[in-house]
## 1
Amino acid sequence: MNKIIESVHMSKQVGPRLKTDRERYVPNNILLMLAGAGLLWMGWSGFNGGAPYAANLVSSIAILNTNISAATSLLVWTTLDVFYFGKPSVIGAVQGMITGLACITPGAGVVQSWAAIVYGMLSGSIPWYSMMILHKKSTLLQKVDDTLAVFYTHAVAGLLGGLLTGLFAEPDLCKMILPVTNTKGAFYGGGGSQFAKQLVAALFIIGWNIVSTTIILLVIRILIRLRMPEEQLMIGDDAVHGEEAYALWGDGEKYDATQHGWNNPAHVEMLAQPGGARGVTINL
């Protein structure tokens, strides 16, 4: 959660991309995204299950809860996409998976599996609402150029998971892994003490990261600019590094939006034809 707060605060200070870059930016490769999502899900089971540093009951429960929460959240997010947008989304499914993973992490080894379903249901709905509905209504959130929506999939989901752990932490499981005695969630007779601890810890992390990141940015600003000039932003990587991120055009040829962009005349003409192909071959 701390890294997400840092990155969001830094994005706010640096400022958003150019308006033209934010109006339409499609995913680069959904197939590679799915491959990465699969690796992420598998790896997440590893570090949640590896938290006890042993192959024991707690690690088994942590892995089981991780998968239950991720799967439930994926289904809930996809269902909300269908109800709200009229169709499911592969990107939305991956985002739901990530929120489920982030949410269950604080309590993966200390909650029962039925509680992991609750984690998944809430992590698939609350971050979805904050991203799809609240973001469009909040002027503050729109000032942060969060291209990957990590604030919603990690910070919101992570904070939610931490608070839920203050409610669902099971005493017997806590005894098996936590050094602090008599740790229990509010639903197990712990009152609100553990929930309050989780909330205070989250607020401390948020405050600490805002202060420390601000200091770091002030030091960097003394040495170099935090934001490139508008002219360089229009050009992109070639203006800063002298090289293109993707060599998709002719050898030595520079990107030209009028020729290579999605709205170039050849592409527009092709799309206007009945039954025309989605892509277009351009003679370089």
## 2
Amino acid sequence: MAKIIGGITTSHIPAIGVAIDKGLEDTPYYRDLFAIYPPIREWLNEEKPDIAVLFYNDHGLEMWLDKKPTFAIGCAPEYENADEGWGIKPIPPVTGETELSWHIVNHLIENDFDPTVCQDIKVDHGATVPMTLLWPNHTYQGIKVIPVSINCERHPMPKPSRSYAFGKAIGDAIRCWEKDAKVVVLGTGGLSHQLDGPRAGILNGDFDNYCMDKLVSDPQELCKFSNVDLIEKGGAQMVELAMWLAMRGALGEGIPEERLRNYVSPISNTGVGVQLLIPKD
């Protein structure tokens, strides 16, 4: 049977991708941020997951405001990306895992979730920046990826509790897949930030760290927030906590071990959190 071996949260800020392309990881501005990734990469190299289920939000590359599914799952054999105008170099395509993708889709529909199925889709920086951070120099060729998109751009958006339940259903689907496979689950985006409007640049480090604490010990507390609550506390893009909650839901019941943690603020006007969580057997 398939087994979820860990969950990782990480930012997907476009500026991080540009910093990698320009070799700026050890500059004073970025040094503290990038310091956490070598031990996470070491863990990945030791555990050698076969599959990564990657929760992200599409920022308009494929799902613009005129067609914005609440939840969408990639069921393609390969995922390309494209130049979005942020200055990030496109990365080589990532390989999909269609058999598990379809297993997840069928399980979700049988359990009252109705995701959009994407058999031909490009992934944006929400997926490519985390892949580059965790598998530098495009060393992800040995791992298969299932991208799962959650709407964080156009209202109405799924409630935090719904995103958590969605992730839980995906975790249940993974654990009942009959093939032997090691799966890592990635929750990307966040934390506090707002890109435009009168509150552009808002940061809330106290709330970010509260969310990181509760993600480990009591995610149900985070599920009590509405999206409006999150926006008030951490800016319009704080709703990207949805991907973190989906990842945590996939890990299942019980309090996971928080193996690694880092928080840096601001990076590109964003509170950036990183965690490595190991579920209890």
